[in-house]
Amino acid sequence: MTYDFNELINRRGTNSLKWDSAADPDVLPLWVADMDFRTAQPVIDALRRRVEHGIFGYTHVPDAFYESIIRWFARRHGWTMRREWMLYTSGVVPALSAVIKALTAPGDKVLVQTPVYNCFFSSIRNNGCTVEESPLIYENQTYRMDFDDLERRAADPRVKVMLLCNPHNPAGRVWTRDELARLGDICLRHGVTAVADEIHCELVMPGHTYTPYASVSEAMRHGSVTCLSPTKSFNMAGLQIAAIVSDDADVRRRIDRAININEVCDVNPFGIEATIAAYDEGEPWLLQLLDYLKGNYDFMCDYCREHLPEFPLTELEGTYLVWMDCHVLGLPSEELEERLVDESRLWLNAGTMYGAAGEGFMRWNIACPRARLAETLERFTEFLNRTKHS
Ligand SMILES: Cc1ncc(COP(=O)(O)O)c(C=O)c1O
Description:
By secondary structure, this protein is an alpha/beta fold.
């Protein structure tokens, strides 16, 4: 089946966080990370069958759920998990929070590489821990890990956990096997458990390869916990489902306890059906999506080269979140976010949402039909023209 990602689908009036939150209905939202595309037809069909049953009681998670994940990761990413390594919960953020609770005590430090996904900060703080930031190095429109800095920080005995974003939101990096191996070496030597958030793992541009952190070596698998979900790549974040993978029975017992304490041990029937359908039958849709996203990124690069040469884009290796350098404006990112909404009806995310290291940047969610992306770029350009002349 061929999918039409150019179709402009009206999402207003569907209680969409992205589309129904702005006071002004003419605002074009390129902020929160979901896509303006319909998901794969097999997922829609599976959900329709489940809805037709008409009874939506508590859900038992069947073997088919675990098996679909195992098959997908073995086939697409060369990592074979075992059924007994896996737990489930109601999303990757609840997963991260439970894992932090399980592996730390209040007052401990959790290492992150900034700028990074905003909920990392809240999950750490909500568990009474402190954020230990190792800023990524920004150079030549891309980011790399600062291994010396990581080494120093990981050596602090109060650092118990490192939250890794692989691929990285918002830096757009798909970490290479070598980078992960160097990071793994640091974490293992200092007894820091790596918690890999791999929710963006399918969203990888041509020429780059996602490597599951736990697949690099047996030691890294044993010293880590992986949190994953098909919801980001198949555009079904509202269905709230995630898996947590650890080969360590004691770690799993502690995480299971934390999931229960946090009361996130129940999932809804739709997340289960959607996961199985996406992994078992959704690949053709995903491959077409990836082509389309690459086309959008190329389109944006061409547009920016021609019309916005002072606003460099960070190279996008993975995710659909483009990180634009807006330092030339000399405006705080948050002010720029507000002014773009108020003056140009364009909603982007301020870089500082991802920590102080994001100051001067804006995040663009380009997972929308190309015509809409073009319109948002024009709104941005018009905003700049008005600002220059006022
Ligand atoms: C890195 C990362 N982790 C987790 C999430 C959200 O996961 P969930 O909706 O399953 O809680 C996002 C959403 O953008 C994300 O970018």
